[in-house]
Amino acid sequence: MKEQSASHIRKLVVTGALGALAVFLGITKLGFIPWFTGASITILHIPAILGAVLEGPAVGAGIGAIFGLFSLLQATIAPNGPIDLAFRNPLVSVLPRILFPLATWGIYYLLSKWKKLPAVLVASVFGTVVHTALVLGALVLTQGSGILTGGDPAVTVWAVLGAIFVANGIPEAIAAAVLSVIVVAAQLGLSSSRSKAKINS
Question: What predicted TM-score, i.e. pTM, was given to this entire model?
Answer without folding.
Answer: 0.88
